[in-house]
Amino acid sequence: MTDPVLATDGVTKRFGALAACDGVSLELRPGEIHAVIGPNGAGKSTLIQLICGGLAPDAGRVTFRGRDVTASNTQARARAGLGRTFQVSALAMEDTVLQNAVLGALGARGGAFRVWRPALRDPALRDRAMAALERVGLADVAAVRTAELSHGQRRQLEVAVALTLEPHAFVMDEPMAGMGPEGSARMTRFLDGLRGQAPILLVEHDMDAVFALADRLSVLVYGRVIATGSLAEVRADPAVREAYLGEDA
Amino acid sequence: MSREGWINALLLAGVAGVPLWAWAVDEPFTITLATRAAILALAGVGLNIALGLGGLVSLGHAAFFGIGGYAMGILASHAQAYDPIMEAPILIQGTKSMPVIWLVAVAAAALAALVIGALSLRTSGVYFIMITLAFGQMFYFFAISWPAYGGEDGLSIYVRNGFPGLNTLDPIQFFGLCFALLLLALLFSARLAKAPFGLALNAARQVPTRVATVGLSPFRLRLVAFVMSGAITGLAGALFADLNRFVSPTMFSWQTSGEIIVFVILGGVARTCGPVAGAALFVALEHVLGDLSDYWHIYLGLILLAVVLFARGGIVGTLAGRGRAHD
Which of A11, A54, B76, B224 could disulfide-pair with A60, CB 3.0 to 4.6 Å? Predict the structure, then answer.
């Protein structure tokens, strides 16, 4: 078995008496899309925060590319090559689409302390940003203010900003959230092609997308992983059938 | 040229044109007023980097303004008394040279901004406002209780400091010097806003989580912005002291911090020439209304109220329209 790119080893996070994540161990292997599903309140958002550095775990470890990053902050993990998208778009709404993508390109360059030359006239930054926008199909609206984008386009821009980092792993928090069926289908096709570039840890509610994309699946209920495996294995798991997928699944 | 570009050109032509006219008709007091406006605008340009671009509402910029002022006062007072600042371990003399004074003012203000910023930028929102205010007040009371440099009475400098090749006692020449520095600061802040640093800082104001997620540190961006901001306001403080040939703890007062914020808001937050419009209007009102009543701040308050309620973009923003999305 190849070494995982990203792994959590028994990560636990408690808020008072509530264990939002309780000894969660997951692995993201090269070339795969690993979906994490679970009902609302199962601890998916907390898990993402623990993986990306927004929260520090009470116990357990997070390793990324063979290094223990448990003590690293968000910036350090991003610089190590972790590309994240947010469930609720976190974009600079006053800025243009291109400026948002250039921000990612600046992060990829590793610093933004240049004060004289305009960022948008820097060919290296601009090319990297435009290449990412072209891949998600936003090149035509590069000069538009982000606030004027449709919801679906904002979701695409979220992904484009992560792409500019050329990360070693993606962590995507409900990339299909709020998208219509057509948008979801397009995003599904796009993510399908992306796994060859870097593996994706995909937290998603859209079951069609999950079943279409996931190589492996982990089911999170009340902060615990109750099952991990291929689609067929997880579907056959009696605990999953009872707790989550329901009798008709 | 964009509409905002024309407005900026017109504004700067006005700030330069009024004293030139006053010089032609021999009205030195008007030149002094214009110099005052240019210097206060420079202080506002400094604050605008933190407030406009970074979204950092600092109610402590008087600290940097005052540090610039006292840098000038201390250096010049020792020079005029022929009394070295310190003799051991190395001899440091005072100076009457503006370039040296500016350098010291900028360095001291930047250092203070680094320390104040490193501590206060760990908070945000109203706590940040209160902490910067507290730092400003610390400097204010320190200046009051420091008898070596005049304490409450401040320091008088009898002859304006010199600049190689210029007669700084001539009002129009001193104005030219201040105006040139203002132009340089405006050029810098305009370039900064579009440079990678400005783009990242502006994003950190809007969505800090996003900035961290691409691997940049919002804290470091804000700290660097705060230092640049404090340094420019410190330079303005040194010029202000030279204009008045007098330094007093008033430069450190929280009212001074408030006035610098007023310039930025009146003129237009995050607009390159906003502080110029704001400071020019402030000085004009102070002069015109100040002649009519000691309570002219009432009218300033009404204008500020109107701007905040009906013209959020300030003078420049209202005239230029939105148009911030470029290229």
Answer: A11
